[in-house]
Amino acid sequence: MAVLGAGATAAHAATPAPPATTSPQLEALLAQEAQQAGNPDFDYALGVAALDAGHLSRAIFALERVVAVQPGNGPARAELARAYLAAGDVARGREELMLVRRSELPPEAAQAIDRVLGALDASHSADRQRRINGYVEASLARDSNVNSATNAGQFALPAFGGLLFTMAPEARQRSDTVLGAAAGASAQVPLSADWDLVAGANLRATSPRQVHEMQTTVADFSLGATHLGEDRSQTLAWQSTGAWLDGGRYRTAHGVAAQWQQQLDRSTQGNVFAQLSRQSYAGQAERNTDRGVLGLALARSFGEGQRLAYGSVYRVRERPRDGANGGLNDHHGHQGYGARLGAEQALGPATLFVEWQVERRHYGGTEPLFDVRRHDHQSDWLAGLRWSIGRQWQLLPQLRRTIARSNVVLYDYQRTVVQVAVRREF
């Protein structure tokens, strides 16, 4: 009967618990709690009486003491499930019902629990409605180094005995005003009680007013599945990216990405992520690489979600695919590591965000013409606002600063981008 009672209550788990009351039976049991707590029979009676009177926390504590010393006590687990469900903890309530269901039960009790579990699963799927989000964006930016080039006018070439080489003006750092446009969409569709289909696509284009050869278009697409647990999720997805430069195909990348996300507590979330991809450059097969990334991330909110801090560390490796020429392409591959730190602060209708990222890269082989192994150290700073200017409209001013230090002068540069974007979400 306790099992059937738990089943009946579980079917109404979404309804709020009744207000707490007292009864002579509960008062008598509470008077003995100090002496009798730990006695399974007493704790069971106390738990049921407290649950019936709406004292959910006291009921849960008492019933948890019972199952701690009597793990096979089906009636106690059923009442504990009822208490969890009444408190809104559906995941733990479902777990307790599953434990009861695995024991030997009368047929009618087993059928009742099966109906309740089915109702809970259906309710869980219904709560996770299909979500489809999208955006369009237009931007205007001033870029101090639109071609990410060095500002050095002359440099020596060790491979030619220190011969001085003069850079053409168009190959050096150039500033420009850049127009941008972007659009994207994402979808999350429940497939079952604990599986979701996830997909996303983005398209972004930039058009400098003067340096037309730096017009870029980038498109990416992902499709995968997410498995949802009580306080964790795992996602595996296929990702494809294509980049075009000055109207011609520049690079493509295809691969898989995986993520394990764990809710550590109410305000803290941890992630482990990995990515494997194959990068191919149009007309430059010697640059083709296989890329792998492995990292850890942590995020924590403060002040009832008004502030957010996050960070990550990762390891990256790119290995050249063309090894038929005796390792002459090794300088296109590298090993590296990086870190990212960021924070957000809500300011009324706006959110201030800042971010810092650093990456060190050590390349293989010897850089042609320079007779050295290339080493890079890149730092990026970002600061901006997400400012709500109307229903589903945002104004996004931001400032980005990049400093790339390299022992090969061609890859040593600095860049500052000031941008204002308007975004419409739907």
Structure description:
The chain is of the alpha+beta class and 426 residues long. The protein folds into two domains: 126 residues, Tetratricopeptide repeat domain (Serine Threonine Protein Phosphatase 5, Tetratricopeptide repeat); 295 residues, Porin. 22% of the residues lie in helices and 49% in strands. It contains seven helices and 16 strands. The strands form two sheets. A 14-stranded antiparallel barrel has the order 1-4-5-6-7-8-9-10-11-12-13-14-15-16. A two-stranded antiparallel sheet has the order 2-3. A hairpin with a 7-residue loop joins β5 and β6. The longest helix has 21 residues. It is elongated, with a radius of gyration of 30 Å. The N terminus is likely disordered. Keywords: Lipoprotein. It holds the Pfam family TPR_19.
